[in-house]
Prior knowledge:
The chain has 248 residues and is an alpha/beta fold. It has one domain: 3-Layer(aba) Sandwich (Rossmann fold). 48% of the residues lie in helices and 15% in strands. The protein has a seven-stranded parallel sheet, with helices on both faces. Helix 1 packs across helix 9, helix 3 (68-82) runs parallel beside helix 4 and helix 4 (105-133) packs parallel to helix 6 (154-174). Bound molecules: NADP nicotinamide-adenine-dinucleotide phosphate. Residues 12-19, 36-40, 64-66, 91-94, 114, 141, 143, 186, 188-189, 191-194 line the site of NADP nicotinamide-adenine-dinucleotide phosphate.
Amino acid sequence: MTDLKDKRALVTGGSRGIGKSIVEELAAMGCSVVFTYQSSEEAAKVIETEHAALGRKVLGFKADAASFDEAQKAVEFTVQNLGGCDFLVNNAGITRDKFLMMMKESDFTDVIDANLKSVFNYTKAVIKPMMSQRFGRIVNISSVVGITGNAGQANYAASKAGMIGFTKSIAKEVASRNITCNAVAPGFIQTDMTAKLKDEIKQELLNHIPLKALGESSHVAKTVAFLLSPAADYITGQVIAVDGGMTM
Ligand code: NAP
């Protein structure tokens, strides 16, 4: 396993699902980690305690990813408590699935703010310290839906496609400072976000997955860890699908 000892990471939305797995993967590789959450205070405390028992530095921080000011505070907290920030993983995200006919303005803006504006908020807050230290690794958790689109997810697909454009633009802007920026596009991963889908929809999705299995959070977490590791030093501006072959 690659050693990420002495590296400092900030992961948004680390209290559940994919974000929680990313925190676990990075902490297991020796990284110290701050993760944010919005409402899962109790889950965050449990995560902190479990990692502390293993001698790992993992700290939760309550911050709404959609808020520019709170993102600034989360980055300040990270720099103060970990001594800096080498890795940023923009993972926090929500869905408000509805066909356009039924979609309210707030369904659209809430999703854009939580999923896309959050990426601006955190990247903007972290880019100065990363540029000063001439090192940084940023990974944005997009979605295959940002590449293919999906009926009933115009808001979500727009936010995830926006993340891809943002990723490539930032990759070009900061490459000369030894900062990389990549996106991961998960397919169907079993988390709270997808648990609400009906069994027949899950079966229909499975029919379109060549590897014939739904994805797990750890599949995404391991890809993120790779992109943050020295093995990916020469990779930037890319979108890696973790989808069992669904979008090839
Ligand atoms: P999840 O199980 O619903 O967990 C979402 C996480 O994001 C939670 O930790 C939640 O915090 C946090 N969060 C949500 N809104 C937030 C906000 N405004 N501020 C701060 N934290 C916020 O979701 P998931 O399935 O793990 O998804 C994680 C990411 O992967 C999302 O960006 C999602 O779009 C993307 N993705 C997921 C799938 C999939 O199949 N699951 C596929 C493609 C892409 P609380 O616990 O406090 O609510």
